[in-house]
Amino acid sequence: MRTKKGLKRYFSILEGEEKAKYLLCENLDEKIKSAEEIMRSCHFCERRCGANRTDGRRGYCGVLESRIASEFVHYGEEPELIPSYTIFFSGCTFKCVYCQNWDISQYPERGVHIRPMTLASMISRARAINVNWVGGDPTPNIFYILEVLRYSERNIPQIWNSNMYLTEESMRLLDGVIDLYLTDFKYGNDQCAWRLSNVKNYTEIIKRNHKIAEKQGEVIIRHLVLPGHLECCTKPILRWISENLKSVRVNIMEQYHPEYRAMEYDELRRRLTYEEFQEAVKFGEDLGLDLVE
Ligand code: SF4
C-alpha cells in the first residue's frame, strides 16, 4: 500500500516556511520572452496551430488577448485547497461535448481583459490561500500569467488547473513557477478523447505531461467518472497512475451531469449511478492510490 504523502511543500508555503516557486524563479523575464515568441506562432498546446496571436490571428481555441470570465474566492475545490482565488479564463483547447463550463470555455471573446499589474494587485488582496489558474483552460494564457507573476510579490502557492494538453515547451515555462498541478485526466484511450473532446494523441501527451508535472511540482489528479466509461477510461487511467506516478493524490469525482451537447451522446444522457461511482473508488483503493476524501 502507498503511504499518504500529502502536499508537503504546498503546506510549507502556507505556513510561511518556504517560498512559492515563482518568487525564487531567476529567469522569469526570459520565460516571458519565450512565451511571447511561442504566441507569435502559437504552440502553447499540442494542437500547435501556429497562429500569430500577437497579430490578431486566432487558433483553434480562439484566444487572442487573455480574457477573464470571472475571478473569485472559491470554496468548491478539494478541502486542502480552499479558500482558493480562482481565475477563470475564457476559451479552451478542448471541445468536450459535456463541458460543465461551456459558457466560458467555448466563448473566448467573453469576459474582460484585466491588466497584469491590476490582477497582481487583486491577488495580493485576495482572502485566499492559493491562486488557481483555470478556465476553459489556462494554457493559451501562459504569457499573460507569467506577466501577472512578474508584478506579484505575495508568498502564495500557484495552482495550474488544466486539461494538461500542453506542449513540452509550455511545460518548461511552468517549471519553477507552478507549485501544484491540479490536473484533469479524462480518458483512458484516444478514441474516447477524439469522440468526446475532439483531441488527437490524448493518452500519449497527457501521460507524458503528468510525468513531467510530478518532477516539477506536487500533483492532484482529478478524474470525473463518465457514465458508461468505467472500463474504457476510469480503470485504465487509475491503473496507469498506480503504475507510473509515485506521489500524486487522486480525486475520483462523481458530479457528472449532462450539460452542453451531452444529450447528443447516448451514454452521457444520464447521471452516474451510485454503483458505478463505488466501483471506481473501490478500484482506486485496491490499487493503493492516495485518494482525496
Ligand atoms: S493555445 Fe490555442 S492557438 Fe495556441 S496552439 Fe493551442 S489551440 Fe492553438
Q: Compounds present?
A: iron/sulfur cluster
Q: Segments where pLDDT lies below 50 for 5+ residues?
A: none
Treating each run of at least 4 consecutive H or I residues as one helix, how many helices? 11
Query: Could you say which overall geometry the principal axes of the C-alpha atoms support?
Result: globular
The major sheet is characterized as: 8 strands, mixed
The overall strand count is 8
**What name is given to the CATH topology?**
TIM Barrel
User: Over all CA atoms, what is the radius of gyration?
Assistant: 18 Å
Q: Which secondary-structure class do the elements indicate?
A: alpha/beta
The sequence of SSEs as H and E is HHHEEHHEHEHEHHEHEHE
Number of domains: 1
Q: Please state roughly what percent of the residues sit in beta strands, choosing from under 5%, 5-15%, 15-25%, 25-35%, 35-45% or over 45%.
A: 5-15%
CATH class: Alpha Beta
Mean pLDDT: 96
Strand order of the largest sheet: 1-2-3-4-5-6-7-8
CATH architecture: Alpha-Beta Barrel
- CATH 4th-level superfamily: Aldolase class I
Distance between the termini: 17 Å
Give helix % range.
25-40%
